[in-house]
TrEMBL record:
InterPro entries (UniProt xref): ASADH-related, Asp_semi-ald_DH_pep-lack, Semialdehyde_DH_NAD-bd, Semialdhyde_DH_dimer_dom
Organism: Clostridium simiarum
Superkingdom of origin organism: Bacteria
UniProtKB keywords: NADP, Oxidoreductase
SMART domains linked: Semialdhyde_dh
Documented EC number(s): 1.2.1.11
Name the UniProt record assigns to this protein: Aspartate-semialdehyde dehydrogenase
CDD domains noted in UniProt: ASADH_C_arch_fung_like, ScASADH_like_N
Domain Semialdehyde dehydrogenase NAD-binding: 6-138
Gene symbol of the encoding locus: asd
Enzyme class: oxidoreductase
One Pfam family of this chain: Semialdhyde_dhC
Amino acid sequence: MSNKLNVGILGGTGFVGQRLITLLADHPYFEIKEIAASERSSGKKYVEAVEGKWKLNLPIPEKIKNITVKNITEVEEISSAVDFVFCAVNMATEDIIKIEESYAKAETPVISNNSAHRMMEDIPMIIPEINSNHFEIISEQKKRLGTTRGFIVTKPNCSIQSYVPAVNALLKYKPKKIMVSTYQAISGSGKVFSDWPEITDNVIPYIGGEEEKSENEPLKIWGNIEEGKIILAKEPIISAQCIRVPVSDGHLATVSVSFEKKPTKEDIIKAWKEFESKPQLLSLPSAPKQFLTYFDEDNRPQTKLDRDLYMGMGISLGRLREDKLFHYKFVCLSHNTLRGAAGGSVLTAELLKAEGYLTSK
């Protein structure tokens, strides 16, 4: 008999949902039992529901093809078959809040890829290597929801997951100001090149809502729990520009940062190379062997060469040098649909299981 936890995927026909399916099809901890989507996909075999819409280079896993897709509103039926769900739906914010809370109140924990709940004071927004201590707020959230095992955990925006890990390793030097520009792949909008011919040979200097998320979400990641709430950090102050570039996958960021206690270049590289955290110490299945990898070459990291580092779960860093306005500047890179979306959610679920927050019903 399998000891795996049974999993549902809400929004399983979309881009992130497809990534989740490929990552979970043969996962050692989790077994896909239910896939749910909108009414138009409900009742179809999964392979039929994604016909003409499968966006990945990987094939649809054979064991998944004939699963019948349910309507995401079938909360009780889906919840009765699974131990928890991943949520990656494409809906209005108020509808996402409603559907995620309905699953949590049905005693089914929700690992969300959506932004709707990210900034709520009792819902943790997790980068597993950085702020798993925020899991502690789950007990307060359960009180509000009136649940015994149901809760919601979110992942942050994909745009922050290249530079926040790099800065996080340097927190002892008290970063004060950050200026960041992110150069974001088209998969971040759920598209491939065939969907979006206008992006070819083009750069679009605007991504709706991304700059606000890039400036504000790190402050929750670095926040503290006080009196049953996650209180945002007051520093560093972050100024962000987010730009869409003609790249399939991978968000690259250029970062300038000033510190209260200026480290040496050697201090910074040492902090990056020696950074360790729970996912690595626990050898979780999706954890990269090395969270942060620094490249000495002047022309690295490169999106095409380095986005798949450690199966797309590693963060690549390079070009550290002194800055004339700030103390230092550098370049970093993360895979937006793996580390930044589906893979980050799976790693979060692995850590929740390891720490006893996800259990079998």
